[in-house]
Write a structure and sequence with these properties.
The chain is about 35% helix and about 20% strand. By secondary structure, it is an alpha/beta fold. It has three domains: about 160 residues, Adenylosuccinate Synthetase, subunit A, domain 1 (Adenylosuccinate Synthetase, Chain A, domain 1); about 100 residues, Adenylosuccinate Synthetase, subunit A, domain 2, CATH 1.10.300; about 180 residues, Adenylosuccinate Synthetase, Chain A, domain 3 (Alpha-Beta Complex), CATH 3.90.170. The strands form five sheets. It has a ten-stranded mixed sheet with strand order 9-7-5-2-10-1-11-15-19-20, with helices on both faces. A hairpin with a 2-residue loop joins strand 3 and strand 4. Helix 3 crosses helix 4 and helix 12 packs across helix 13. The protein starts with a strand and ends in a 6-residue tail after the last helix. It binds guanosine-5'-diphosphate, 6-O-phosphoryl inosine monophosphate and magnesium ion. Magnesium ion binds next to loops.
Length: about 450
């Protein structure tokens, strides 16, 4: 079969969870490969409505092995709460496995995330305060604790003792806050270890075996391309890579094994936290998108910043990930809008540029150059057949495909599992003709 990576194409919250929940029906395995519980993946399916932070979105299918890969950082308290919540709603979680190489989010990580944010003051990143920056910093600084350490209490204690001495020095001397207790943390994590021990395994071999059997394996991304520490809007980014490149490292698969890369994009853009966002709408349209799309963070509840689709950033995301196809979500949120804008270029220092700048200080000064398309006036959330979409909606899709040079194979028209249009074949010429007519203003709704 295939190894398919599902990657966020924008600033996160594109609807990756709902797409994985849809595609997992035919899968044998779903693996999360990066991020931590900063992710919030909302799923609405016959089992109910769930916000998953760490558990892969394939958990609702008992036949799908769900793996939290080595590239993820786990907060055991959050994971156990999530597992208990799923079980209490009748969702079997016995097919969940955790890589012994996942890094553990410790109480000092969450504490320091908050303290660092407060220290930054007006320049704060707007993190989720889940300890993500600190845990991934410790990983590369080689002072992290891993899930596998929970299986060896003496090793865990000795490593924790060394690290906590350093962390307490920082807490008391730099931040002037009380130190943390070694005994309390140790006891707490021993308790987590006892509950999680049965799930903790070497997972790269399990994933490789599935691939060798020819299973369908989905690699579930977290966050979005523009939050990548290298290619995103640095420093307003997260601390692990959401790109497809990280899907290999975060699972232990060879990059050669990844056969398809699906980018998930919203029909507009949203962003939570600080950092540049050229198409942000501060007006009524922005407000309308937020309310219609229920654009409030799945992890922190913060209102999401909303704006028109940014095709410059989108094109960059397609290039950096090499998407084979795109799943476009939230198209229904545009129902009833008189017109829809797409940002096709930026204006910087009086010049038109069509590339995504590497510097946030440049991006902050970029003005969007818009193309305007007429909107459709009917509800599309019950439509399941592409041909039945209003002509103007099809033209919008065709224009995005043209700008991104990538075809859209799935169109999501609502949050529920079944609210999706699968495109079987693409009649390119017909779409281009429609687009031409649209530009001349000769189509009706
Ligand atoms: P993720 O982090 O990429 O999985 O996305 P989130 O779950 O954080 O945010 C997506 C939100 O949009 C959730 O509330 C979903 O239920 C909802 N959603 C997903 N797809 C659609 C769609 O096509 N239309 C609408 N209206 N809502 C959607
Ligand atoms: P999913 O998987 C949207 C954002 C935060 C902040 C920045 C850094 O649901 O798409 P962090 O806590 O990671 O140090 O915060 O990244 N962020 C997300 N925004 N969706 C997410 O995940 C995010 N995970 C982190 O808001 O701006
Ligand atoms: Mg989310």
């Amino acid at each position: 079969m295939a190894v398919v990576a599902i990657i966020g194409g924008q600033w996160g919250d594109e609807g990756k969870g709902r797409i994985v929940d849809l595609l997992a029906e035919k899968a044998n395995m779903v693996v999360r490969f990066s991020g931590g519980d900063n992710a919030g993946h909302t799923i609405v399916n016959p089992c109910g409505e769930f916000r998953l932070h760490l558990v892969p979105s394939g958990i609702f299918y008992p036949q799908v092995t769900c793996i939290i890969g080595n590239g993820v950082a786990i907060n055991p308290a959050v994971l156990l709460e999530e597992v208990d919540n799923l079980e209490s709603h009748g969702v079997d979680t016995s097919h969940l496995i955790i890589s012994d190489r996942t890094h553990l989010i410790m109480p000092y990580h969450t504490l320091m995330d908050g303290l660092e944010e407060e220290r930054r003051g007006k320049k704060s990143i707007g993190t989720t305060r889940r300890g993500i920056g600190p845990v991934f910093s410790d990983k590369v600084a080689r002072i992290g604790l891993r899930a596998g350490d929970l299986l060896h209490k003496d090793v865990f204690l000795s490593r924790l003792k060394t690290v906590l001495e350093l962390k307490n020095a920082i807490l008391t001397q730099v931040y002037k806050v009380p130190s943390l207790s070694l005994e309390e943390i140790y006891e707490q994590y021993c308790h987590y270890g006892e509950r999680l021990a049965i799930l903790i395994k070497e997972t790269s071999s399990i994933i490789r075996q599935a691939v060798a059997r020819g299973d369908l394996v989905l690699l579930e991304g977290a966050q979005g391309t523009l939050l990548d520490p290298d290619f995103g809007t640095y420093p307003y980014v997260t601390s692990s890579s959401p790109l497809v490149g990280a899907a290999a490292i975060g699972t232990g698969l060879s990059p050669r094994e990844i056969s398809q890369v699906v980018g998930v994009f919203k029909a507009y853009v949203t962003r939570v936290g600080g950092g540049p966002m050229p198409t942000e709408l501060m007006d009524n349209t922005g407000h309308l998108l937020r309310e219609k799309g229920h654009e409030y963070g799945a992890t922190t509840g913060r209102p999401r910043r909303c704006g028109w689709f940014d095709a410059v950033a989108g094109r960059f995301s397609v290039q950096i990930n090499g998407f084979n196809s795109i799943a476009l979500t939230h198209l229904d949120v545009y129902d009833g809008l008189p017109s829809i804008k797409i940002c096709t270029a930026y204006k910087f220092n009086g010049e038109i540029i069509d590339f995504f700048p590497s510097s946030s200080s440049v991006l902050e000064k970029c003005q969007p150059v818009y193309e305007e398309l007429p909107g459709w006036q009917e509800s599309i959330s019950e439509i399941r057949d592409f041909a039945r979409l209003p002509t103007r909606a099809r033209c919008y899709i065709a224009r995005l495909e043209g700008l991104l040079s990538c075809s859209m194979s799935l169109i999501s028209v609502g949050p529920k599992r079944e609210q999706v249009i699968r495109r079987k074949s693409r009649i390119k010429d017909k779409e281009s003709k429609l687009q031409f007519k649209m530009q001349r203003g000769s189509t009706k709704n």
